[in-house]
Each structure stands twice: as C-alpha cells, then as structure tokens.
Predict the 3D structure of the following.
Amino acid sequence: MSWTKNQTMNSKIIGTGSYLPENIMTNVDLEKIVETTDEWIRERTGIEQRHIVADGQTTSDLAYKASMQALEMARVKAEDLDLIIVATTTPDKIFPSTATILQQKLGNNGSPSFDIQAVCTGFIYALSVADQFIKTGMVKKVLVVGAESMSRITNWKDRDTCVLFGDGAGAVVLEASNEEGILSTHIHADGKYEELLHVPSGISKVAQTDDIAERTMNMKGNEVFRVAVNTLSKIATETLEYNNKAKEDLDWLVPHQANLRIIKATAKKLNLGENKTVITVNKHANTSSASVPLALDEAVRGGRIIPGQLLLLEAFGGGFTWGSALVRF
Ligand code: UT7
C-alpha cells in the first residue's frame, strides 16, 4: 500500500478482542442481596448475569486482556501502535490515565495514550477520535479500548441500579487503509441531563456525607429509558442519511448493551430482526464503554460478522452522551 501523509485514509478494524472477569454474579445471587427477583430482572432488562472484578483486579487488567486478543487477531505488535485510547468511567487511578497504565503493560513506549470519558458512549467517542487521527494521516495503527469496573461504583444496596451493571473490556485495532472501513462517526452530548444518570461526587466535588449513594451510581431509570429509545432511533436515521444508505443496507446492529427492551426498540425502528442484532446483554449486563466492543468481538469470533458487512454501532449514556459509527467491516 502506498501511503503519503496528506492522503485521506480510511480506518479499518483489523482485530477485535474482549475480556470478562472470572467471577460471575447471577440474578439469583442478587436475590440474596436486595429485594429483587430473577424474573423481574430478565423481564425488564434481559440480563441473566454479570461478571465482577476480583479483589485487586483493575480496569487496566481487563483492558490488557482484551487488547492482547485484538492485537493477536490483527497480527500487530503492541510496540507498533501509534496511538492508544481507553474509554473508561472507572479508571485505575485519578492519574495517570488508564491508557498509559495499559501502554506500560503492553510494552509500548512513546506513543500518545489517553483516556476518554463519555460513560456508556465512551467507546464510540474513542472510535471517532481515533478515526480523525487516521483520516488526517497523523497515525497508522491505533488501539481503541472500552474497559470498566462498574462494580466499584455500584451501590449494592440500591436495587434500582445494582442489578443493571457489570465489569468487562473490549478492544479493536484500527489500521489506515485504502479500503472502506469506518464510513462515519456521529457523537453528541447534552449536559442538561446530568442528574438523571450520575455519580454525585468525585474529586473536586467532594461527597458531603458518608452516604454510599453519594459515591455510587444514581439513575432515574425510566426517564433515561425514554430519552435513550428516542435518541438512539434518531441517531440511526442521522447516520444512514449522512451516508446515503437505507435500513436494508445494514447487515448488523451492534448496540450498546444496557437493556434488551431498548435494543429491541432500536432494532424494530430499523426493521432488523434478532438475526441481525448482536445481543450480549444477557451474559454481562451493562458494562458501559465496554459493551459495544464486547458485543462486536463476540459476533466476530462467533463467525456471525464477516468481512465486507455493514455494521451500525450505537451507544447512549450518562451526560447524556450518545453516538454511532457506520462501519464496513
Ligand atoms: O447505559 C446507560 C443508559 N442506561 C439505560 O439505558 C437504563 C435505562 N433504564 C432501564 O433500563 C429501565 O428503566 C430499568 C430497567 C432501570 C427499570 O425498568 P422500568 O420498566 O423502567 O421500571 P420502573 O423504573 O418503572 O420500575 C417499575 C417497578 C417499580 O415499582 P413500583 O413503583 O411500580 O411499585 C420499582 O420500584 O419496579 C421496581 N423495581 C424493582 N423491582 C424488582 C425497580 N428495580 C427493581 C428490582 N427488582 N431490581
């Protein structure tokens, strides 16, 4: 492939990977902790189980395992990566970034590495940023990771939220290519929704009491649900129209895995059946920024998503933030 700095290149996904921690917590396990039932969780969310990090296991540990798989599939050595981006809401430390901790574990020295914080939309944001770097000719090989230890910011006494989240990581390797790859990305935010889904305190906003609820996720679930369904269908239309594509052109919807009912509502608006929608939420619950790459990797490794197919990736999360990517795989 001939390549010059000023030539516009496409970002091609050449490897995917994922990792879920070994510890599994089922809905029945949760029945012992809060007033809930396996039936309620399955019916309202589609979730059957979630994976939970072990004591001492960190977000960068999960990111590392997913990244190694993606690098192996891509046949790219970590030292040859030009850029590492980690999307996470649950970093190992306040600083340095989880991306630089991951970089150290991978044995890459000198390439720019940074985190992106867009909660559940983080992976799509990171993909969008990586795509701009490739398109402008700044870099040729990028590792994009979504990794989360949501259990660390979960209030295990709050049944409204604790049944919904899990831990995990997913990764992709992108390479500059003359072939079609990421056709477009679309990212949005509206900060007026801050308090519908948030952790009320952090670093500069100090918790005022010892109440665990101040340091863990708070969500007004059904309000989030309503906005998510409307917004995701709008962004699907925006993405298809921008690319002059019809719903029928899509081979797969690879959605954020938060709630099966939201996924099915989006798929229905796109006239996509379950045979064209990647669903993994049952196995790992909402892993925030890890959920899209986790779903993508499962469908790729399972042989369902194959080269040449057209994929719509989408996500919605705290902020609110939302985004999509249309990808020729
Ligand atoms: O990734 C970021 C984006 N996040 C999301 O997309 C999540 C969006 N929201 C949702 O997925 C859903 O709104 C939930 C799954 C959180 C809730 O489902 P819902 O159908 O909206 O239920 P609801 O909040 O309207 O609550 C229905 C009932 C309530 O009881 P009453 O008031 O009707 O008596 C809740 O107290 O279900 C009750 N409830 C529970 N019952 C058993 C809430 N949580 C539980 C629980 N187990 N864990």
